[in-house]
Design brief:
CATH class: Mainly Beta
CATH topology: Hypothetical Protein Tm1070, Chain: A
Radius of gyration: 19 Å
Structural class: mainly beta
Helix content: under 10%
Order of helices and strands: HEEEEEEEEEEEE
Number of strands: 12
Amino acid sequence: MMRRTFSAVAILVLLAGLPAASLHAEESAVWSKGQTIYVPAYSHIYIGSRERPYLLTVTASIRNVDLQHSITVSTVDYYETQGRLLKKYLEEPVTLRPLESIRYVVPERDKTGGSGANFIVEWEAERFVNAPIVETVMIGTQAQQGISFTSRGRAIRFSD
């Protein structure tokens, strides 16, 4: 019983030291008419002391989180570790209605991106809207081991 009480107190002390914002939504809304977003991706990571590649499937997800307005995605480009363009996923712009999402998948067997792969996503809107969430989800399994994680995009250029 003493051990449980100590654990509960330790957890409360740790939580008390966290900033209040970390216990709520990750960030406040960003309003924009368009952005260029850099999104980290990993077609593989390294495991073990011999740095053996662990292949991953990458899913790039673009989510229009605006409740009332559409956005237009004009670019979804996939780059490898040294910055060379590997694939252009869009031949023409795609419009996402309010709360609509779209995804693009890099298969596990495609290891050309490397551990420093990334996407560049460009979008625009006719008016200021709640900026979309753009992220990648990486997942892989080998033998009886599985791994998954996400990377959130970062705006590197804003439209006027």
